[in-house]
Amino acid sequence: MDTRPVVLSVEGFSxxxxxxxxxxxxxxxxxxxxxxxLVGPNGAxxxxxxxxxAGVLPVKEGRIAVAGFDLARDEERAKRAMRWIPDDPQxxxxxxxxxxxxxxxxxxxxxxxxxxxxxLLARFELGxxxxxxxxxxxxxxxxxxxxxxxxxxxxxxxxxxxxxxGLDPRGIRSAKHEIEELAREGTTVILSSHLLALIEExxxxxxxxxxxxxxxxxxxDEARVRFPEQARGSLEEIFFAATGEGVARVDGRGAPx
Length: 257
Ligand code: ATP
Hints:
With 257 residues, the chain is α/β, with parallel strands linked by helices. The protein is built from nine helices and ten strands. The chain has helices at residues 46-53, 75-80, 97-107, 113-123, 139-152, 169-184, 196-202, 220-226, 235-242; strands at 8-17, 20-30, 35-39, 61-66, 69-70, 82-85, 157-161, 188-192, 205-210, 213-218. It has a six-stranded mixed sheet, with helices on both faces. Strands 2-1-4-5 form a four-stranded antiparallel sheet. Helix 3 runs parallel beside helix 5 (139-152) and helix 4 packs antiparallel against helix 5 (139-152). The longest helix is centred in the C-terminal third of the chain and has 16 residues, at 169-184. The radius of gyration is 18 Å and the shape is globular. The structure holds adenosine-5'-triphosphate. Adenosine-5'-triphosphate binds next to strand 2 and helix 1. The site of adenosine-5'-triphosphate (ATP) has 11 residues, from strand 2 and helix 1.
């Protein structure tokens, strides 16, 4: 039996838009320090799932709990435990980079924010922009600021939607390093991306969605057992096998759905 604390619990989550079922009966759990790679073809339901966990969309069917707090009944405490990094973060025009960190630290009750802010700005190479306003930042800089804001008060869970898409090569390298460091410190990360090489490099677990349904959940090694013909292949080959026609829908632990 798994005795690790559960950071994120998703049980029987479904979401429909009008008559279209975007996510269908999704269940999974995450533990401290895990990095979940959330992948799937366009329209698979990844963003709908992430936005619902983040509290942007309401939970209508199923149950989602973050750090033990039910998102529907204890929304504030559930949200305090997590951060959300969208693919194109929009900082406040009227706040400087440093003020964003001060504001975020105040929101999450982080007192000794100043030295942590200096450290993060240096790590993400934003030091020279500390006094620039949100509206003066390039896309990649907005992305880096979103990382700094997510990191300033250590959260239990960080949700990231294509987090590296605006970064330059050096930014990508430091972001990857920082994501691994954050997970090593115990934060749980969900990384949604079409960059399968990135997922392969960072993720400790995989969740593959296709047309709203879970088609695989488990480690990459478990995926290789599940898709033996792709056993020595890359995640890309496993992805195509999992989301191809006629593949039985089974999770990584072998439980039929
Ligand atoms: P992508 O990789 O293209 O970003 P995704 O896996 O994030 O896709 P979602 O954005 O969650 O997929 O969309 C899942 C399904 O829900 C799609 O069929 C999409 O058309 C539909 N959908 C998403 N948002 C809405 C909306 N606001 N109104 C109606 N349908 C929507």
